[in-house]
Amino acid sequence: MPNFSLLTLNCFGTPTGTTRLRLRALAGELNRRDLTVVALQEVQAQRYRQLLINACSSYPAQAFEPFVHAPKGGLLTLARLPIEQAQFTLYRDREIAHPPSIMDWMLHKGVLATRLTAAGTPIVVLNTHLNANYSGDWRAENRYARGELAQLRELAEIVATQPPEALVIAAGDFNIPRGSWLYDEFLAASGMFDPLAGDTRPTYRTMPGVPARYALPIDFALVRAPKLPGLQVRGDLCFGERVPLAGRRAGYLSDHLGVELRLAWDDPPAPILTTDH
Question: Which residues 6+ apart lie within 8 Å of 198 measured at CB?
Fold first, then answer.
């Protein structure tokens, strides 16, 4: 059966004392998995981008938008298949709702669209990282939530521009909870579905000092599929356990869990050849 697999992860690629160890361990995990594409967010330094590209040796193709201090948007997409085209779109709404939002503004968040082909099926991966909601309040009147709504509407526009025959996957750190009104509106506007719909397991692991209310499912791999015979779609979370980082030391690969997506479909029936007499 033709198949396609993807893993998305906010890799927490910010400068800390363990970042290089974590990213090297992450690369080892990714090399061992039979994935077609990996979508990474929060790659916040060029040295970490280069580290991941070099260490993820089983993914010969990479896509990112060059920028000053890091890939634009902190986005990096790795692939085992050839990447045919990559395009970055900067989100139009980049309002600094409150002082913490300056970090989102500096990273120039947007959407990295990567196009490739698997078993004759065109595939578009939209790797994205929306602005954070530092208040943890997703009500419609919240200023952070309104900014996220504007970015989600633009993402839905990008989904709509993709060819109808393409398998489209929007993957990344959406910074909105599964089941929220923002989530529901985006699915309706984009025509996508969530293979993990209803799953309440948090994908963000709160760090010391961060209120527990932020531990929510905010990372997604959403799908818009053309008519593929016998299409099967499975999703699950990964990287929830500590792993060896160096020597006997163990730690989490990120403050987020990964979302893994696997799709398979039937080969189209062979054409029937007839001979005219």
Answer: 178, 179
- Kindly state the tokens that stand for 140: 């419609």
Q: How distant, in Å, are the alpha carbons of 152, 169, 189 from that of 123? A: 21, 8, 20
Q: What's the CA gap between 129 and 77, in Å, rounded? A: 12
CB-based burial label for 155 (10 Å; 0-12, 13-18, 19+): buried
Closest CA to 130 of 10, 252, 44, 255: 10
Are 186 and 156 spatial neighbours (Cβ–Cβ below 8 Å)? yes
Question: pLDDT per residue over 213-248, tens digit each?
Answer: 889 999 999 999 999 999 999 999 999 999 999 776
Angle of helix 46-55 versus helix 19-32 axis, rounded to 10: 30
Q: At residue 272, does pLDDT exceed 80?
A: no
Q: Would you call 80 helix, strand, or coil by DSSP?
A: coil
- Write down the mean pLDDT value for the chain: 94
Q: What is the pTM of this model?
A: 0.94
* Pairwise CA distance, residues 119 & 48, whole Å: 32
**Cβ atoms of 22 and 48 closer than 8 Å:** no
Amino acid of residue 222 = L
Q: What are residue 73's phi and psi, to 5 degrees?
A: 75, -5
The residues with which 224 forms a beta bridge, in sequence order, are: 168
